[in-house]
Amino acid sequence: MSLGELQAAYRACFSAENGDRAGRLAAQDYLNNSTAIYHGDVIGLGFIPKLYDQPALEYFDALASTTYRILEKVTRRFLEDGAYRALFGFSPTLERLICLPTGYATTIPIMRADLFLNEDDLDFSFCEFNTDGTSAMNEDREGANALMRSATFARAAQELGLEAQELFEGWVEGFFELYRSSEGAVERPTIAIVDYRASATPYEFEEFRARFERRGLRCLICDLSQLVYRDEALYGSDVNPAHPAFGRLTRIDALYRRAVTGEIVAELEADTGVGAASVEAAAGLNIGAIGAKAPGLRDEAAAAATADTGAHALVRAVEQRRVCMIGGFCTHVAHCKQLFTVLHLPETTAFLTEEETAFIRRHVPYTTRLSNRHIDLNALKTDKDRWIIKPEDGYGSKGVYAGVDQSQEDWNALIDECAERHYVVQSFCEQYATPNTRLTPLDERGKQRFATLDEWKRAEGPNAGGLGLESWNNLTGLYLYNGRFSGLFVRAGQTGIIAGFAGGITVPSFLAGYDSQAGLALRTAGSGIFGVAQ
Fewest CB atoms within 10 Å of the CB: 64, 294, 300, 469? Predict the structure, then answer.
């Protein structure tokens, strides 16, 4: 059965349930009370999930292996060859960080390769590689939990043999695999999940924390700006007021970096220093509030005054090999948008195989810097629907603009504004569309329109509106943990940019008839509702 036939079979179950409005409301109710929250908002969810059978999964495994092999070669060449490094045009600060040793063999511990997949023939074009801050595991987990509450899913699961994937345990195992191989590994490390507070996805971090703690280990969630390096050790305090390490510096042995390199470099290059008023914040302490009850903390604050803090603390600890950071700065080579330009250069094809070079030519879209020195800007303006522009160092689709979404006047202005500002321009890839629908209709403010089934029926009548399916473009992400294909994440949208802020939805992935003995790294969650953290 092809992927298209699998999807059609699921939609037939949806039709057999007459649009399953009760199931859609049950899924929405679960989602509204779940941890599926991104920057304060409950995520949008598609009611028709993505289904993948064994042949498709084995194809993705081979695709992921080829992709990872190429990116490993490129990253290692960057580390070894100064002339090759110059092709990327990084700042001296960024180059220095990328070249810091990690203490383990793998250059890209975790990544998500996002691609535009044609589900009819499995051909594809890459969109980007997310190696810094690889995320969205919790969106798929909670989205799957929501859909599993519907009669449509119950019917389809029985007919098609569906299982939910498990994206957390595989990475936790991969994390420990690397840590145990690193220099100075200890038996029971204290782990810290580290990001800048404004960029963090705290519910996902709590889910990972639960998995680490289930193994009997202490795990902190730390704001990178509050890290402290002193006495040849890295310290952090937990951001959760309910955690025992909140407001108390704790030594860190192993660090799961979720902060993107670009934000760390921005802090380093700002070089504002640490004033007296910021020492308490950098140490994660509120001395005025708790000093009388815990006078020893004043000594900690005094010591922090002579310590490195924030990004400087992290870099110092990594430089001096006093912490094992899983997700070294060398991941930025694959993460940056100018990589797509460098992949096509003869300096890259010279050390790749013919098979790898052909893979790049077929699947990596043309990309170059947005500058008159590299491309005719007037030609970009007159043929806007063929192009998309992106920041060289970005994530989460921030600052990305597709010509198909812009008026001619706005597109011209964007080209003028973004030229010479560390942007790239890329061929706009054809997007594969499939039928889907949101869980429930939205009102004009984008809020859930109906709270109850009776309200929905009164408004639309018992059979009005049909299934409510519309055409949605798909972006398919392949998770790779230590180079192995380990799961999927799918978003869908109705504009040239597929992202939540652009009206996009998360589409949970399920495995159909998965053979766990076939040698793939994929894990399943079983047939029940899964997850640890509440």
Answer: 294
Looking at residue 417, what is its pLDDT?
A: 87
CA distance 90 to 529: 45
- Please check whether residues 370 and 244 belong to one and the same domain: no
Of 257, 285, 320, the last residue of a domain is 320
Are both 19 and 154 inside the same structural domain? Answer: yes
Structural domain that includes position 394: 366-428
Last residue of a domain, one of 410, 428, 446: 428
Cα 51 to Cα 137, 150, 153, 521, 524, distances in angstroms: 17, 16, 12, 18, 13
Q: Which residues contact 418 (CB under 8 A, 6 or more apart)?
A: 370, 389, 401
189's tokens: 């490390």
> What is the Cα–Cα distance from 167 to 64, expressed in whole angstroms?
16
Q: Give the pLDDT of residue 394.
A: 62
Report the CATH number at residue 384: 3.30.1490
What pLDDT was estimated at residue 113? 97
Q: Examine the domain organization and report whether 407 and 521 are in the same domain.
A: no
Bridge partners (DSSP) of residue 350 are none
Instruction: Please report the pLDDT score of residue 459 as a whole number.
Output: 85
Are residue 141 and residue 200 in the same domain, yes or no? no
In a domain, 510, yes or no: yes
Q: Are the CB atoms for 440 and 449 separated by under 8 Å? A: yes
How many structural domains does the chain have?
3
> Do the domain assignments include residue 176?
no
Residues 150 and 247 in one domain: no
pLDDT along the chain (534 residues), means of 10: 93 95 96 92 96 98 98 98 95 96 96 95 93 93 98 97 96 96 94 95 96 96 97 96 93 97 93 40 35 40 68 97 97 93 94 97 89 80 86 70 86 86 82 93 87 86 69 96 97 77 87 94 69 40
Q: For 293-302, which contacts have Cβ atoms below 8 Å and span 24 or more sequence positions?
A: 297/247, 297/248, 300/249
Which amino acid does the sequence have at 435? P
Neighbours of 421 (CB within 10 A): 11
